[in-house]
Amino acid sequence: MDRWRGKTALVTGASAGIGYTITVGLLEAGVNVIGCARNIASLETLQSESTANSATLTSIKCDLVKEEEILSLFKEIETNLAMSIFW
């Protein structure tokens, strides 16, 4: 996964289960992760535990069932993280 080192990935459901496992794996591979989940506390715990990696984890609370939270997620990524969203 060296070609992804230093890139940024958006992982939904990053606080538990498959999303959590994917987040940990990406961080270990040097991929920066924007993790979103309903349970922000779990993401913040993972964020504090992942300081040994060169990659960063940015935690954003988002319930993917709520359209306004999805729109807010993308707005925060574009505004506060200065990243463009490509579809």
TrEMBL record:
InterPro entries: NAD(P)-bd_dom_sf, SDR_fam. One of its GO terms (molecular function) is oxidoreductase activity. The keyword Signal does not apply. It comes from the Eukaryota. The keyword Kinase does not apply. Keywords: Oxidoreductase. Pfam families: adh_short. Belongs to the short-chain dehydrogenases/reductases (SDR) family. This is Dehydrogenase/reductase SDR family member 11. It comes from Hypsibius exemplaris (Freshwater tardigrade).
